Amino acid sequence: MEVGIYDMNNIAVIYKSKHGTTKQYAQWIAEELGASLFEASSIKHSQVAVYDTVIYGGGLYAGGIDGIKLVTKNRSKSLIVFTVGLADPNTTDYADILTKNFTQEQLSKTKVFHLRGGIDYKKLGVVDKSLMAILRKMAAKKKQAELSDEDKVFLDTYGGKLDFTNQPAIKPLVDYVRAL
Fold it and tell me: Which CATH number is correct for 11-117+164-179, 1.10.760.10, 3.40.50.360, 1.50.10.10, 1.10.150.240?
């Protein structure tokens, strides 16, 4: 659902999705808010500034938010960011990721939400497969008593397909935007 650049709501949902879960969340959010929807590679830097509210979604990879510079270098009046990763947002500390991806000033003006995505190991490229193999080896070296619930799920499902996407998880973000 690509909507024109001068949408009446003046809200853009922009996403960068490697495996599809960030795209799914972006579509749900755009539908809920009646917002314009853009894949990050299809919107120009100058177009970002046209919108009063920009909602950006990017996957978490090696401590980075995929494609985040598109919106940190092109500020809108309101910037909302959602990250998508495998970790459980209820038990994960994102402080290091946020300070790595935003200046303190940017972070003070940005509302961030964290959502849980998925993975299909069969669809991973060589680099991603290698990174996941390293993470698996690190988790497998831990003693049983040291394994977190996340570690256990990771080891039990390694090599398969996981999907934690959950449409109701977007509610806090949608409610926040509606209250602006």
Answer: 3.40.50.360
Q: What is the pTM of this model?
A: 0.82
In angstroms, the Cα distances linking 123 to 82, 94, 119, 156, 172 are 23, 26, 8, 18, 31
Distance in angstroms (rounded) separating the CA atoms of residues 18 and 118 = 11
Instruction: Determine the Cα–Cα distance for residues 81 and 83; give it in Å rounded to an integer.
Output: 7
35-87 confidence digits (pLDDT tens): 999 999 999 888 888 899 999 999 988 778 998 998 888 777 889 999 998 88
